[in-house]
Specification:
By secondary structure, this protein is an alpha/beta fold. It has a single domain (about 5-335), classed as Luciferase-like domain (TIM Barrel, Alpha-Beta Barrel). It has twelve helices and nine strands. The protein has an eight-stranded parallel beta barrel, surrounded by eight helices. Helix 1 (about 20-40) runs parallel beside helix 12 (about 320-335) and helix 3 crosses helix 5 (about 135-145). The longest helix is centred in the first third of the chain and has 18 residues, at about 20-40.
C-alpha cells in the first residue's frame, strides 16, 4: 500500500505534564495544531476525558473552538465526544455553533464510553440509568437535530444553530458494538487500536462486510489509532517513550496523574514496572510505533498494509513539547506529507 494514499491525523488529549498547568497544555495544543497544519496533517481531534489530572481536554467543544480559531485549513473535531455524558440537543447546538464559526472544518466523532471512572460518570450523567445502552437512540436523536427530515413528525424542539448543517459524524469504538452500528448506518468508523488493539481486525471485518451505503458515505471508511514516538535516533525515541509507559502504568494501577518526565535510560523502567505490568502494557500498546525516521516509516507501512485503513490518527504522549513537535514532524517526513 502506498502511504501517500493514506490520510494522517493528530489525536490530542491535551497532556498536562508534571510541573506545568492546564494553561501550558492548552497553549502547547494550539502550537502543535498550527505545526500539524503546516506539515500536512488532515485533521486534529481532541478527546473527552474527565477527572484526570494529566488531561486538559474535558471541555472538548471549547478546546475544539480554540484550536479552530488558531488554524485556517486543518479539520478540527472530537475523537471523541462521549454522547451518554451529554444531552444530544446540547451537542447539536455546540457543534452547530462550531460549524457556523468554522464552516467545512468541523468533525463530530462520537463514542459511548464514559471517558472516566464510574463515580465521575455518575456525576456527569446524574443517574445510574445512563449506562450507554441507549446510545443508538441518543445518536438518532442527535442526527435528527441536524436533519429534521429524519423524523416522521415536525420537531417541536430544534437545534439552533445546528439544524440543516452537514457535519461529518464518525462512530468511535474499541469493540464490535460501534463497528456494527456504523456499518448499519453507513457512517465512517474509527477504532481505538492505540489502547485497545485486541478486537481491531475483527471489528474492521465486521464493519466492512456489513456496511450499508448511505447519503453520508458510499463505501466504508476506516480510521485507526496508533501511538507514535519518533526521534532522530532509536535510542532517544525509546527513552522519551518511557513517559507513555508510565502514563499507562499509572492508569493500570488506578492512579492517573500528570505526564511524567522520561527516564534517563530505558533500562530504568525495570525498576518502575513489574514483569507482569510490562507484559500487560506490551499487549495494550501493540499499536505503538517507537523509533527513528526509517523505523517509523516501515512500521506504519506494515500497519497500513495489515489493516487497509483509509486514515491513521496518531497520538503521542511525550513530556517535552519540542520533542513532541519533532515526533510529529518526523512522521510527516516519513510518510511523505512534507
Amino acid at each position: 500500500m502506498n502511504m501517500r494514499h493514506l490520510s494522517f491525523s493528530v489525536l490530542d488529549l491535551v497532556p498536562v505534564v508534571e510541573g506545568k498547568t492546564a494553561r501550558d497544555a492548552l497553549k502547547n495544543t494550539l502550537d502543535l495544531a498550527q505545526h500539524a497544519e503546516r506539515w500536512g496533517y488532515h485533521r486534529y481531534w481532541l478527546a473527552e476525558h474527565h477527572n484526570m489530572p494529566g488531561i486538559a481536554s474535558s471541555a472538548t467543544s471549547v478546546v475544539i473552538g480554540y484550536v479552530a480559531s488558531g488554524t485556517s485549513r486543518i479539520r478540527v473535531g472530537s475523537g471523541g465526544i462521549m454522547l451518554p455524558n451529554h444531552s444530544p440537543l446540547v451537542i447539536a447546538e455546540q457543534f452547530g455553533t462550531l460549524e457556523s464559526l468554522y464552516p467545512g472544518r468541523i468533525d463530530l466523532g462520537i463514542g459511548r464510553a464514559p471517558g472516566t471512572d464510574g463515580l465521575t460518570a455518575l456525576a456527569l450523567r446524574r443517574g445510574p440509568g445512563s449506562d450507554g445502552n441507549d446510545f443508538p437512540e441518543r445518536l438518532e436523536e442527535l442526527r435528527t437535530y441536524f436533519d429534521p427530515s429524519r423524523s416522521p413528525y415536525p420537531l417541536r424542539v430544534r437545534a439552533m444553530p445546528g439544524e440543516g448543517l452537514r457535519i461529518p459524524i464518525w462512530l468511535l469504538g474499541s469493540s464490535d458494538f460501534s463497528a456494527r452500528l456504523a456499518a448499519e448506518l453507513g457512517l465512517p468508523f474509527a477504532f481505538a487500536s492505540h489502547f485497545a488493539p485486541d478486537y481491531l481486525m475483527h471489528a474492521l471485518e465486521l464493519y466492512r462486510s456489513r456496511f450499508k451505503p448511505s447519503e453520508e458515505l458510499a463505501e466504508p471508511r476506516v480510521m485507526i489509532g496508533v501511538n507514535v514516538i519518533a526521534a532522530d535516533t532509536a535510542e532517544e525515541a525509546e527513552r522519551i517513550a518511557s513517559s507513555l509507559y508510565m502514563q499507562f502504568l499509572n492508569l493500570i494501577r488506578g492512579r492517573p496523574g500528570k505526564l511524567q518526565p522520561p527516564v534517563e535510560r530505558i533500562e530504568e523502567m525495570d525498576r518502575i514496572w513489574t514483569p507482569e505490568e510490562r507484559a500487560v502494557l506490551s499487549k495494550q500498546l501493540a499499536f505503538t510505533v517507537i523509533g527513528d525516521h526509517r523505523a517509523v516509516r516501515d512500521k506504519l507501512q506494515q500497519i497500513a498494509e495489515m489493516t487497509k485503513a483509509d486514515e491513521i490518527i496518531i497520538g503521542a504522549h511525550i513530556y517535552d513539547h519540542e520533542a513532541r513537535l519533532r515526533s510529529y514532524e518526523i512522521v510527516a517526513e516519513a510518510v511523505g506529507m512534507m
